[in-house]
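WSC domain-containing protein: structure tokens wanted.
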Amino acid sequence: MAAYRLAIAFAIAQVGLAQNGPTTVLKYKEWNSIGCQGDSTSARALKHLVAVASPNVTVESCLDSCAAGGYILGGVEFGDECYCGNALLYAYGASQACDKLCSGNASEFCGGPKALNLYQFADTPFTTGPASLVFEYKRWQWWGCMDELFPLGPRLLPHGPLAPIPGEQMTVERCLDGCEAAGYNAAGLEAGQECYCDFVEKGGPGAQPLGWESTNNFECADPCLANATEICGGLVPHSSATTEGRLTAYLTCDYFDRC
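Answer:
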């Protein structure tokens, strides 16, 4: 008899689902829906992958994971993927493709192919790409996009700020302030979330620091994780197994005799 009642209850639930259909979760705890946003498999709008091809993804489980990680944005994609971040790194625009059911709850939508059901925590402000170069900041001036030797050689700038900057808090300004506070006159940002420093000797007028090798500026195109409107270096493929870093490099004005 108990099994029969369970079967009846399940059938009623399925009928209700068929009649009402799946829905987009608009609010959960302090999270609010900000729509269906486009995404890309080659450059994700949200940096951090929490779950992929999971049979248990729901909007609620994803947002709980993002909240636990301290992120202010969360998104579900392709029915079984969960992403988090503190900035919308790329502005792909609105999408109409959020039509896949959540793998863990068939009454909810969990994004779609290259489409995120995107959520914001408690109306916390966030930045949205595209990113552009910061050319000047206080005593610092942009020098160019530099090849990073690591891991094939020593780092171009081997030091860092005295107080390490978490990747999720990385901006150009925080990196440059940190390097200056540590007494360095050179700084570089890499991969959207890394900050490096060093002291370099002056060359002749306009001379490039020893060991610095310029590359195409378009190879420095990664948005900073805490400010998607700023460029924080980049990464480019080196082989099937490795990548090479690119540094958005800065020098203080005394290097240029312009202070």
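The chain is about 15% helix and 30% strand. The chain has two domains: 21-121, 136-256.

Cheers.
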